Amino acid sequence: MKSSQRIGFIKFLIGTILGIVLVLIPFNFDNGMDTILFHYLKLFIAANKTVIQYLLVLCVTLSAVLSLYALINKNSFLHSKRLCKKLFVTSPFYVVNRFFGALVSILCLFKIGPEFIISADTGTAMLDLATQLSILVPMMLLFQTLILEFGAMEFLGELIGFIVKPLFKVSEICAVNIISAWVGPGNAAILGTQDLFEKGYFTVKEAAVIGSQFATSSIGWVVLVSSVLGLMDNFGLIFLGITLIGIILGFITVRIPPVKNYPNTYVDGSTESTIKSNSSGSKLKTSYINASERANSVTLTNFTSKIDNMSFYVFWLTPIIIFWGAAALMISIYTPVLSWISLPVEMILNLAGVPDASVTASAIMSGFADNYLPVILGEALPSIESKAIIAMMSILQLIFMSEIATLLKSCKLVNKFSDIIIIFLERTFISLPFVIIFVKLFIS
């Protein structure tokens, strides 16, 4: 055993364990369960919310103005600077999106304009959410480096990759990203997946599978949803059910369009990965060697390179998330569209004898707008059974317009917006019968 390998393995253990403890494991704090990283970041946000919100609205407004300037002036400095080009050079469609996002942000910040825009349930809700996420997601992207780039991918990929390969039709190296996406924040998982795709780790199809099938809202979010709905006594069962049904969902959806039709090609168009690993000896020895070599290759650049994606989230995605999230919430709350599209779900719930089927169905389908909207609509329901179904579905649907759907499209992990809608509907109608059966057997 080489000395360099021992040193590398120590680096792997320290970096990975530190990342898991900080980022993934929920602890019981005074204000409830959360990860260490999120707990202290949320305390910071609560203490400085006003300042952060003003700075965020400034960033969103700058994003709109600079992207318009870049669109008009093709010879501007924004086109010549690498990071500026990534952040501000975009199509007319996204420039318009940014301006609408900036407009909603300004109106909500200063409490001016129509009530349906600045209401606490629509635009203001999205601005408050974006304020939190503007700190949480960039920091998650930074600290997630400890888990994703210190050898855990190589170690787990060799040890348990043989499980994910036949189940989800992806390479072994996807194993740790699937796990990280499932238990960590989905937004950070998507940006991290995009980053690794660009580095040649994943094919187009693998990136789409991870982003559209496993980028849930984190253990912390499941805790939050369970707490608000009064289901903490059943948290363990709810998370177990979500995980088991999530595996079934992933198994099915990767075998049907649209995900099935994505190409197994890498970022450079090739069908062979440029990421090489040692595969001699036993799986445990190979895992040890690969993890050690990966950990030894880590430098400060692995952390500083995250500045791109951290900035991308704030300047590129935040205005779009605010606009589309607010628009989706307005449609859900102020129009009858939600009750219309909920009818098929209501029929299934009625057939299964689920209490308050109409409200439960509306809550489930509202998840396409935002994954917290089902919780808001279902909070007053008296039935534990209905609440548990809403809680599990709000996580399993995974796709919601206010963030994940926008991220998938903006990061180009999913080709077309129509694919996003199809994936949402697939996940909703495939998972619903399993969720109903699970809740009736173990929770109600």
List keywords for this structure.
2% strand, globular, two-stranded antiparallel sheet, 444 residues, mainly alpha, 25 helices, 2 strands
Proportion of strand residues: under 5%
Order of helices and strands: HEEHHHHHHHHHHHHHHHHHHHHHHHH
| Fraction of residues in H or I helices | over 70%
Overall pLDDT, averaged?
88
> How many strand segments?
2
- CA-based shape: globular
Measured between the Cα atoms of the first and last residue, the distance is 55 Å
Number of domains: 2
Q: What is the radius of gyration computed over CA atoms, rounded to a whole number of angstroms?
A: 22 Å
Ranges where pLDDT stays below 50 over 5 or more residues in a row are none
SSE-based structural type:
mainly alpha
Keywords: Membrane, Transmembrane, Transmembrane helix
Transmembrane segments: 12-29, 51-72, 93-113, 133-156, 207-229, 235-254, 312-334, 388-408, 420-443
Organism: Vagococcus carniphilus
Protein name: Arginine transporter
Structural account:
The protein is mainly alpha-helical. The chain is built from 25 helices and two strands. Strands 1-2 form a two-stranded antiparallel sheet. A hairpin with a 2-residue loop joins β1 (26-29) and β2 (32-35). The longest helix is centred in the C-terminal third of the chain and has 29 residues, at 306-334. The radius of gyration is 22 Å and the shape is globular. The mean pLDDT is 88. This is Arginine transporter. It comes from Vagococcus carniphilus. The chain crosses the membrane at residues 12-29, 51-72, 93-113, 133-156, 207-229, 235-254, 312-334, 388-408, 420-443.
